[in-house]
Amino acid sequence: MQFTLNGKATEIAGNPASRLIDVLREECLMTGVKEGCGEGECGACTVLIDGEPVCSCIIPAGQVEGADVVTIEGLGGKHPLQELFMNEVGAQCGICTPGMIMAAMKLGDKPTLEEVKVALAGNLCRCTGYSAIYRAVMKWKGMPEPENADKLVIVE
Amino acid sequence: MSEVNLRRATSLDEALGILRDENRAPIAGATDVYVALNYGTTGVRQFLDIWALDELRTIVKRDDTLVIGALTSYTSLIESHLVAEHVPMLAEASRLVGGVQIQNRGTLGGNVANGSPAADGVPVLAAVDAVIVLRSIDGERRVSVNEYYTGYRKTVMRPDELIVAIEIAPVEGKQWFRKVGTRAAQAISKVVMAAVRSDSPKIAFGSVAATIVRVPETEKALASGKSIEEAVEILGRELKPIDDVRSTADYRRRVAMNLLKRFWSDTA
């Protein structure tokens, strides 16, 4: 399998049926990719394939042949959203954090709180709480701090 | 678990040739298949990876019929102007499938092929009498989605066939879709209803039987001018939901009846 990983041409031998998350963590040593549920529900394993957030725990590695893959490591550790997750206390245990940040990468300019919630709807957090996470993302996008960020939204 | 074998096809002809010669299950976005593999709930180990077949990713209008390539993702359905114009409730259903990550990989053909009675897209297809286009190396055939399922996760598709497209003729009448689950995103449905309001209403449900179902008795009642209250009673008798981990049969029946009432008043 040949693909681009965090900007570098990468070649991996092995079974193309292996889960992408296993190849990224164990062969490419990108351990920022976390496994939560292993069934595409929690989003902890989110990486970007050709710019689109996907769950790497349910993707055969062979499907990234020729693609551009970005993990949390690809952001370099000093990305403004990474800093904001720290400063706004958007991370407690940290398992959901890389996935949250990667899913947020797809957001356009000036998102509404509702758009942020939709973008992160596939990412579950069980300890930090969503308000701090939404606050970090909104600040990153230069948007005013949301009021009642943790208010329930009923999607009709 | 014994080793999973994934063979990659790079063209439709190649894929159909492999399906003729080898016993392999097609795999696209893998959002259902890899969950089953991770949890050991499938015995299938030989797969044909069709993700690279970009020729199955088009959405076009042929005459008046909307033709959706089998590998069209939910994200593409949400973004498509043709879908918005022709069958907006399909875009609505797609928005409620998983989160963005799943919408980016899950495909409409996969939703049909997987055959889950809780599929979110299939009730929409059932309510608009969509046609599933199956192709093998020997040719193509078309099957109404309402004749496609023969039992729980059982379909009329042969092992040498591939779903290549889903066709939707013009839809006359107001479209209506609701998904009832535990949570807006990332929740498997307890009940899904898709319907079209016209002189002969078309009503489909997901998660209330072994397959996606239409409710002909209820449709007939409404078409013949019976009151919505009578139709709701008929629906209550017509549906035979089951108890499972997500819900009870009683709850599902009650929700379905309420949805029918809501559909009727919303589309009045």
Task: Give the topology.
The complex is a heterodimer of chains A (156) and B (268).
Chain A: E1 2-5, E2 8-11, H1 20-27, E3 46-49, E4 52-55, E5 68-70, H2 80-87, H3 97-104, H4 113-119, H5 130-140
Parallel strand pairs in A: 1-5
Antiparallel strand pairs in A: 1-2, 3-4, 3-5
Chain B: E1 5-8, H1 12-21, E2 25-27, H2 33-38, E3 46-49, E4 59-62, E5 65-69, H3 74-79, H4 81-86, H5 88-95, H6 100-105, H7 108-114, H8 121-127, E6 131-136, E7 139-144, E8 149-151, E9 154-155, E10 162-168, E11 174-180, E12 191-197, E13 202-206, E14 213-214, H9 216-223, H10 228-238, H11 249-266
Parallel strand pairs in B: 1-3, 2-3
Antiparallel strand pairs in B: 4-5, 5-10, 6-7, 6-10, 8-9, 11-12, 12-13, 13-14
Helix pairs in contact in B: 9-10, 10-11
Report what the structure shows:
The complex is a heterodimer of chains A (156) and B (268). Chain A is of the alpha+beta class and 156 residues long. Chain A has helices at residues 20-27, 80-87, 97-104, 113-119, 130-140; strands spanning 2-5, 8-11, 46-49, 52-55, 68-70. The model of chain A has no long low-confidence stretch (mean pLDDT 93). In chain A, helix 2 runs antiparallel to helix 5. Chain B is of the alpha+beta class and 268 residues long. Chain B has three domains: 5-49; 54-168, Uridine Diphospho-n-acetylenolpyruvylglucosamine Reductase, domain 3 (2-Layer Sandwich), CATH 3.30.465; 174-266, Enolase-like, domain 1 (2-Layer Sandwich). Helix content of chain B is 35%, strand content 24%. Chain B has eleven helices and 14 strands. Chain B has helices at 12-21, 33-38, 74-79, 81-86, 88-95, 100-105, 108-114, 121-127, 216-223, 228-238, 249-266, and strands spanning 5-8, 25-27, 46-49, 59-62, 65-69, 131-136, 139-144, 149-151, 154-155, 162-168, 174-180, 191-197, 202-206, 213-214. In chain B, the strands form four sheets. Chain B has a five-stranded antiparallel β-sheet. In chain B, strands 11-12-13-14 form a four-stranded antiparallel β-sheet, with helices on both faces. In chain B, helix 9 packs antiparallel against helix 10 and helix 10 packs antiparallel against helix 11 (249-266). The interface between A and B is medium-sized, with 33 and 28 residues.
